[in-house]
Amino acid sequence: MELLDLSFFTSAIRMISPILLAALGGALCARVGIFNVGLEGLILAGAFSAIVGNYYSGSVLVAVLVGALGSVLVSLLFGLAAIRFKANPIVAGIAINFLVLGLTTFGLRAIFDVKGAFYDKNMEGLPKIDIPVIEGIPVIGKLLSGHSPLVYVAFLAAILLYIFFYRTVVGFRVLAVGKNEAAARSLGLKVTILQYGAIVGCGILCGLAGAQLSLGQVTMFTEGMTAGRGFIALVAMMLGQSHPIGIVGSSLLFGLMDALSIRLQGFSMPTQFTAMLPYVITIFAMFFLKDRGADSQLSGQQSSR
Amino acid sequence: MNLQRKLQQLLSSMVQPLTAVLIGLLTGAVAISIVGASVIETYKVMWDGAFGNFYFITATLARATPIIFIGLGLAIAFRAGVFNMGAEGQMVLGAVSAALAALYVPGPGIIKILVALAAGFLAGGLWSLLAGWMETRFKVQLLISTLLLNYVAVLFAGYLVSHPFQDKSGSAALAQTTMLNQAAWLPKLFPGMSVNLGFVIAIVFAIILFIILRFTSAGYEVRMLGYNPFFAEYGGINKIKVLLYSMFSSGGIAGLAGTVEVLGSQYRYVEGSLTVPGYAWTGLMAALLANSNPLGTAVAAILLAALQTGAMGMERNTEVPLEIASVIQGVLILFVTAKITINWWKVKKKGGDIHGAA
Q1: Which end of chain A is less congested by CB atoms within 10 angstroms, N or C?
Q2: Any idea where the domains of chain A sit in the sequence?
Q3: Do B141 and A291 touch (CB under 8 A)?
Q4: A6-293 in CATH: which number?
Q5: Cα distance from N-terminal residue to C-terminal residue, chain A
Q6: Could you tell me how far CA B208 lies from the centroid of its own chain?
């Protein structure tokens, strides 16, 4: 088996999309001054509601929409705690993670009457999209074509978010809120509305990430199926300094590392070390990006700096 | 009058957690009625599962033991104003080091136990110190680095017990160390009950920590750093030193959580035995619920453990799923954080009053 071949990169791209989507959502929140640790819970909520939507409607489109809606509802709860009640966002985020883990497992029992995982062979997953012209090009075709629509949506969302932040008036206002909330407020910006908007946007993106998880590769929901992806997305967001293009870069790094760790398992290395790789590399990457952490104060922690 | 004010303070600090508990229980009630069970009946079963008889009480205390340690460790870090999210990794490394120390250090049982406790504390402490060092020396964000180090620690411990130190005596090759010599076991407090000496150690730690934080200059420095790092520095406190000490003891105590689990209840390190029950996150919640007060943290840890053991009893005896406990916990924490506003608002108001009086 070769270490790096084409299927390696395609699997990397597939793994990226939930992380990228969630990280972009996290960036939206970060840019309005809310550090969202609850990404994990939001993705899980999206994954679960997508499966519920799929089961009852039988339509993939409805499923994705329900997934986004479920995530938005949880996101709004987080927003309510963090904005309205001025709770510590980190604590509220942790609470959201726990709450959703409990709610989805509870939902599995209450709605589907199963424990652990829900699978129904009649459920239809996300279709694969073959892009007409690109499909025919030898290498690039295999790489870029034949993914689920949400993979393309993820990259599109990054571009749109970039345009939104740096080319629109509302985007500029959002950035202003993140830079200095008090100053933005004194200018007469509707800070609270912008913050809630970002929270909703984050919910939608995380919901899509969840839908990709539960409907993308295999059509099923398992308890805690996010398996730390929300935290990876959080790190990808910090590594990318909440800049859409930076986040694409850091998510690509994670996807590649993830794919690499799976691939290395074929080379008789202990799986623990290969699985460790993405985290170790991220820690090293943080050494190099340490000074440019634009929103380093966002996490609200005091430290030596 | 002073006493009255103190009493008032105590009461007002209790109002918010109690409200949160109430909202949590109400949410649980809604969830219970959704699955069509009787709310009162279910809660009663839950109570019995946690405190119903002596056996269940000790089971609750046994479950609370690692949670108390984790909560205490995190309370130190929170008091110093740093968000240590790495309790899980610190606990696991402490557990695996303690298991290996107890297995391979020669000598009588008491020596093994003491060495294991020291090894567990050191392993957790050093792992936590690594994050603190990266923060102070290289400005690598602690919140993120501790989170990342969790994965590394858990995977590394998994490697240790599935490759070099795996128990190969059994027929099934599970990822675990061999069983500790019985001499190195922490004794049970009551014969036949699951609570062990670790619980007593945890409570002693809570009291010591309370005294240190409240009455010593070291504790004052830690708290000052947490309240206002700039003032702390202005006041001549070596911020880096205090932060590193806090992180070391924070991780060390988290390491003890794993250690007492190994010495007192598992008698070996089994992969996943500490991470699956989510001790680390529950401990985090306990510290948050109690606003990082060590004694309060111990009480909150017991309450959260009771919620979990109670939910297990509930699942045994009713149709209501166990996960109600995490729903209640989640809601509880979500609302306990909201107190920050109310506190700030009160502080502001009080400040205004003082100015008005003057």
Answers
A1: N
A2: 6-293
A3: no
A4: 1.10.3470
A5: 47
A6: 16
